[in-house]
Write a structure and sequence with these properties.
This protein is α/β, with parallel strands linked by helices and 340 residues long. It has two domains: 172 residues, Rossmann fold (3-Layer(aba) Sandwich); 145 residues, 3-Layer(aba) Sandwich (Rossmann fold). The protein has 14 helices and eleven strands. The strands form two sheets. The chain has a six-stranded parallel beta sheet with strand order 2-1-3-4-5-6, with helices on both faces. A five-stranded parallel beta sheet has the order 8-7-9-10-11, sandwiched between helices. Helix 2 packs across helix 3, helix 3 runs parallel beside helix 4 and helix 10 crosses helix 13.
């Protein structure tokens, strides 16, 4: 099968999702072309900015940039002649691409990566983008996203076993407690509660300003940092993009990618107890906490018990062995590709 993957336009976590699925699809024999939407966005942003600086009557917008980058995706589809187009995230892809690819009678499959936080926006893409099928990373989002008759199913997060694996980091990236993730307000407050503890706390959690500047930690280095930590924190996001707007316990059940990646590295993690799926996947291999005070107590307890940490980490790693990108392709993605 010939598969065109439209990369998301971002260079952080959604990029890793696209790369993971491209790698897995290639590995099982599909002919895959990964369209680097992010590179074309950068090219046209620089090009149109230059044109604006040298033409007083012209002012460009990011919509202009997205339109030009999307046009190249359509050209790539004409050249490659795919059997299916897999669009990762899709929020940065210009509507023109959806319309033209549809006119070419190409089945469009959308992999939504921002549920439930961006479901209002994502539902518009599903309803208006001529989508043959949409995957969502949140099981509670399947019903609301398909309310207008769209074909939507749940696709759990996954990991790359070539990246996320146990490794000897030779004392580098050593820490008592390590956290990585965008510092939404609830996460920042939690970290603040740990600052008074007598521990070696490492926070590579990126601020929204860091995201805009592209100052991100790549997955290879992140896996090393997980392996160097005694305790990895995994605190699920509750903040939506609009300030003050949050999701509730009835909006999210599925765990994020960090839970799989930490476990695949053979690292020990502590996780918030807000996602029911955590127990379904890990049982008691991943201890949880209810609040900051509970987390402080858990940290103190487990720092003194390396053998217990090792035992639980090994159990968690065993639990995710069938959760790689390869397994997700075979179990969830390929059946949809062959059906549409």
């Amino acid at each position: 099968m010939r598969i065109l993957i439209a990369y998301p336009g971002a260079i952080h976590s959604t990029y890793d999702v696209a790369a993971g699925y491209e790698k897995a699809l290639r590995a099982i024999g599909h002919d895959v072309y990964g369209y680097p939407y992010h590179k074309w966005l950068g090219f046209y942003a620089d090009t149109l900015k230059y044109w604006e600086e040298h033409n007083e009557q012209y002012t460009f917008t990011m919509d202009d940039v997205a339109l030009q980058a999307a046009n190249h995706l359509v050209i790539a589809a004409v050249d490659f002649e795919p059997d299916v187009v897999l669009i990762i995230s899709g929020s940065a892809l210009h509507r023109r691409a959806y319309d033209l690819l549809h006119k070419m009678c190409l089945p469009l499959v959308l992999l939504l990566t921002e549920s439930p936080y961006e479901d209002e926006i994502q539902s518009k893409i599903v309803d208006q983008g001529h989508i043959a099928h949409a995957f969502t990373n949140e099981i509670y989002s399947v019903e609301p996203l398909s309310v207008n008759g769209a074909s939507v199913s749940y696709l759990p997060h996954s990991f790359d076993p070539d990246v996320h694996k146990p490794m000897d980091v030779n004392g580098e990236h050593a820490s008592d407690v390590f956290f990585h993730g965008t510092l939404w307000v609830e996460r920042a407050r939690l970290i603040e509660e740990l600052l008074g503890m007598d521990i070696d706390l490492c926070v590579s959690g990126i601020s929204m300003a860091d995201v805009q500047r592209g100052e991100l930690v790549d997955n290879d280095k992140l896996a090393q940092m997980y392996n160097g930590a005694k305790i990895c924190l995994n605190h699920h996001r509750t903040t939506k993009r609009e300030e003050g707007d949050t999701i509730g316990l009835n909006d999210a059940a599925s765990i994020g990618p960090r839970a799989y990646e930490i476990a695949a590295c053979g690292a020990f993690q502590l996780c918030d107890d807000t996602r029911p799926e955590l127990r379904a996947i890990f049982g008691h291999a991943v201890p949880t906490y209810q609040n900051a005070a509970d987390l402080r107590a858990r940290i103190e307890y487990f720092l003194d018990r390396p053998n217990e940490r090792r035992e639980l980490a090994d159990m968690a790693r065993e639990r995710v062995q069938d959760c790689s990108f390869m397994h997700r392709v075979i179990e969830f993605v390929e059946p949809i590709f062959r059906r549409i």
